[in-house]
Amino acid sequence: MKRNNARSTxxxxxxxxxxxxLSVLPVFAQTSETKKTLSPPQDxxxxxxxxxxxxxxxxxxxxxxxxxxxxxxxxxxxxGATVADPAAMKVVAEFPANQHYVRESKWPWWTxxxxxxxxxxxxxxxRGVELKDGIVYSVTVAAVLSDDRGIAQPVQAASQPxxxxxxxxxxxxxxxxxxxxxxxxISTARKREIFLRRIPxxxxxxxxxxxxxxxxxxxxxxxxAHDMSDPSTIAAAVILGRVAKRTxxxxxxxxxxxxxxxxxxxxxxxxxxxxxxxGKPDLYKDDSNFFITSDQxxxxxxxxxxxxxxxxxxxxxxxxxxxxxxxxxxxxxxxGAIQIAGTDSDHQLPFFVTTxxxxxxxxxxxxxxxxxSREPVQxxxxxxxxxxxxxxxxxxxxxxxxxxxGVMLDAQWPKLFLDVFKDVx
Length: 425
What we know:
Blueprint: H1 2-36, E1 45-48, E2 56-61, E3 72-79, E4 90-96, E5 119-124, E6 136-145, E7 148-151, E8 155-158, H2 169-191, H3 200-215, E9 219-222, H4 231-250, E10 254-258, H5 261-277, E11 289-291, H6 296-310, E12 314-318, H7 324-334, E13 338-343, H8 349-355, E14 358-361, H9 364-373, H10 376-408, H11 415-424
Parallel strand pairs: 9-10, 9-12, 10-11, 12-13, 13-14
Antiparallel strand pairs: 1-2, 2-5, 3-4, 3-6, 6-7, 6-8
């Protein structure tokens, strides 16, 4: 009887083990089948990267359920339109499957090829590949998980340079808009007087020239450390024309030492024209503009020597300056001269403010010519620039507001804007 019970118990154990094995086998079979059928990326598209100079292909494909940091995508490339075995193609890029979405690209929203949840990768020269324009390439994408790999069908495409960069079309619109604003401001300035904010440093120009005339001492004018390609030097040369016209009218000696020969030649012509406009061309001297040296501190020492010997009654420091700024202005202050500075070099502004009587800060240097001459073209240009800056500030404010609303409402602009427009409509 006991032997029969033992046999019955053993049979039950064997039956239970068989049932467990049968229940586990489908799991292993399903896992093995999953490994064999890792779905390849879907909707793979390859096209020439738009709005570029060539040598670039863009690959776009749909996201998959297995997108995660554990799964990886590989971009494969081969030259030629026919590929016998996609697995033999060269791997040119590999990254986790939860990266490289369209929304992460630098393309503006109006040139993005598809929705933001699509994957995107750009093959470009210098990133481990060498693409030749006009040559057909086969490109595909593979999904890799552990030892499993699913490869999509290769797609053929060729790169080529584009005539138009549509990514920068907004800059064209802005340039046309600002150009129209400037032309409108110029036409307005020709019809009526436009108010300009009072700049004390420019109001003191006549005072400085008058003091030099009363004392019978010269005026020293510096155009900065840069050449004529720098906007601050151009502004300094334009202001020199206004100062030279006043000195010609008052018959005051003008000294303009230079560090650059080209700047010297330009300033000579500007000074000559200023004396001609003042009606006293016979007072013009070619040596009023003279070249010293291109070396920074040799030039500084020479100008300091002129200050100590000539003792000019007014010193003008216009343009861009470096370490020589304080050496020049300290020497000028020790001689008792009126000093007027104007620069866009923010690292030298503290020294000019400390040692000079008046300082034109930043854009006041560029506004000086319009302020002194009151010519409609220059005044209108200045007014147009101010309107353009105000417009940019408004656009930045609106963009910040839309971006904030997009984060709060979990939406992206312009989708949020379009949704609001639909509701209003």
